[in-house]
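Journal club side-thread
Mid-discussion, someone asked how the predicted structure for our own chain would compare to the paper's figures. Pasting it here so we can look after the session.
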Amino acid sequence: MLYSMKYNSIIGELLLVEKDDFLIGVWMMNQKYFLGSENKSEEIIEKETKVLLQTKNWLDRYFNNEKPSINELPIAFIGTEFRKEVWEILAEIPYGEVITYGEIARKIAKKRKIDRMSSQAVGGAVGHNPFTIIIPCHRVVGNNGNLTGYAGGLDKKIKLLTHEGLDMSKFFVPSKGTAL
């Protein structure tokens, strides 16, 4: 059984979801990959649990310009080993900084002791991140400053990066592409 709670933020309403005393996701309402394929068939009950209240507090602090640690939350990653590898790298990106899909691909290739890893595969894993804001996929950009890709929409990605104090003059929104 899943428990959920809604949270209003500067990027709109979020759905916080818990299973077995672990946070399993924070999704923007109706975002791409909402609830993830693993959870769609389970019953969801709206209830303020300890874990969900803890997550609400974490988000309150984040939106009040504090920098709460991801490690404060009992997170359960549900996904493939590759996705989990990518999400662990995302969790290490400092506030107000960005990393490219290519840099993540190089880190995974190095860890796996292989010559190269596909940036597109990394992009797919980033896009399926179930922890909006908490696991900061909004801090991932294209190699040339392209703000491509964000499951909730680029306007929300820009709001979050601006909230974190990033100088947005270095970045641009692509005029066309599949991740708009």
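Post-session note: Residues 81-170 form a domain with the Arc Repressor Mutant, subunit A fold (CATH 1.10.10.10).
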